[in-house]
Fold:
Amino acid sequence: MTKNEFLQELYNHLLSLPAAERDDIIADFEEHFQAGAERGKSEEQICAELGNPYTCALQYLRTAQAPPQNAAQPTAQTPPPYTAQPPYRTAANPPVRRANLPWAIAFFFAVFLAIGIYPACAVLVCSPIFILIAAVFTAAVVPSGTVIGLLLSVAVMLCAAGVLGILVTTWFLKLSYRRADF
Structure:
């Protein structure tokens, strides 16, 4: 862990403190890094000596939330109690696993479907070229306005169906992959 990563994570843990107090704490830790660098230590060594940023922040948060000794009742300005778990994902706080087995099954099913859907949709997208080639080399139909209009509308419809198939399949693959939380 580098100095900037350590200080950023510490800062994120201290967000419930007033800005002035938070800045003082960060300045103290920057002094620790500066003193360690003067002694020839690397940022990683200093981070290892300081420990986990969450536990460092927790010490400050507990002292900040200790009630005053001369006050019998908490005042309205007392901040809400600090929760033991930080609200974001870190190595110390892994994400809560949701029931993702159905989405994992859906993802693998979608992968197998995509093996057939993507080539079929690619052919549909290229269908205007095939229709044009077929119209040029087929002499059975006299090219009239109605026939050309029919061929163009069929070509546009098939091309749009191919694009839609690719978009829907890609969307479902991405959705099921994200929900499966691999």
Observations:
- The radius of gyration is 32 Å.
